[in-house]
């Protein structure tokens, strides 16, 4: 299994499962969906793997229905601003970052009329696209509104990025 250096959650329990359910459509015919999930005991991270694009709210609703009443999963991750910036800056390549300025407007780094050093670490990130390298594979990573999407062919590469995120963003809080 892939392992990033200085990983702080060594030995955490990983609860895994599969849930299948019928998605209720707004229009037309519904579909049966199946997804795998993993909840990590120490970092509190919930990882969802699905072969189809599905509503995250529906998936979380299904997970919450399948678990004990006192166990609830909430959608929005709210990482510390500086730790998320650090995670993105340490990537091999940064494609795009959208921030929220003082007026609450979403702007890309190229659109903001300030020196990058003033922006980086000081403004909240709405979304970002960047890539890390694991062995010979470039892994595209997308962060948007508290969710992280990792596009990797190799499961070890995916695990490596998850561990970097846990170490640099979750643990640093």
Commentary on this structure:
- There is one protein chain.
- 23% of the residues lie in helices and 34% in strands.
- The protein contains four helices and eight strands.
- The chain has helices at 56-66, 81-89, 116-119, 155-170; strands at residues 14-23, 31-40, 46-50, 93-100, 106-108, 125-134, 137-144, 147-151.
- The strands form two sheets. The chain has a five-stranded antiparallel sheet with strand order 5-4-6-7-8. A three-stranded antiparallel sheet has the order 1-2-3, covered by helices on one side.
- The protein is globular, with a radius of gyration of 17 Å.
Counted by DSSP, the helix tally is 4
In total, how many domains does the architecture comprise? 2
Name the helix and strand elements from N-terminus to C-terminus, one letter apiece: EEEHHEEHEEEH
Shape: globular
Main β-sheet, spatial strand arrangement: 5-4-6-7-8
Overall mean pLDDT stands at: 85
Overall SS class: alpha+beta
For the biggest sheet, the summary is: 5 strands, antiparallel
Q: What order do the helices and strands come in, and which of them pair?
A:
Elements: E1 14-23, E2 31-40, E3 46-50, H1 56-66, H2 81-89, E4 93-100, E5 106-108, H3 116-119, E6 125-134, E7 137-144, E8 147-151, H4 155-170
Antiparallel strand pairs: 1-2, 2-3, 4-5, 4-6, 6-7, 7-8
Helix pairs in contact: 2-4
Provide tags for this entry.
173 residues, alpha+beta, 2 domains, 5-stranded antiparallel β-sheet, 3-stranded antiparallel β-sheet, 4 helices, 34% strand, globular
């Amino acid at each position: 299994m892939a392992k990033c250096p200085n990983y702080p959650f060594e030995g955490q329990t990983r609860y895994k499962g599969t849930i299948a359910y019928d998605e209720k459509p707004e229009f037309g015919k519904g579909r049966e969906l199946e997804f795998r999930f993993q909840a990590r005991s120490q970092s509190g991270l919930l990882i969802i793997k699905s072969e189809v694009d599905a509503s995250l709210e529906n998936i979380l609703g299904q997970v919450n229905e399948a678990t004990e009443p006192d166990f609830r999963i909430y959608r929005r991750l709210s990482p510390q601003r500086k730790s998320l910036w650090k995670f993105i800056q340490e990537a091999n390549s940064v494609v795009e970052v959208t921030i929220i300025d003082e007026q609450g407007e979403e702007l890309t780094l190229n659109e903001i009329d300030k020196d990058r050093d003033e922006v980086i670490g000081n403004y909240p990130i709405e979304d970002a696209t960047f890539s890390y390298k694991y062995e010979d594979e470039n892994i595209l990573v997308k962060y948007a509104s508290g969710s992280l999407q990792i596009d990797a062919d190799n499961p070890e590469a995916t695990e490596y990025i998850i561990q970097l995120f846990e170490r640099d963003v979750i643990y640093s809080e």
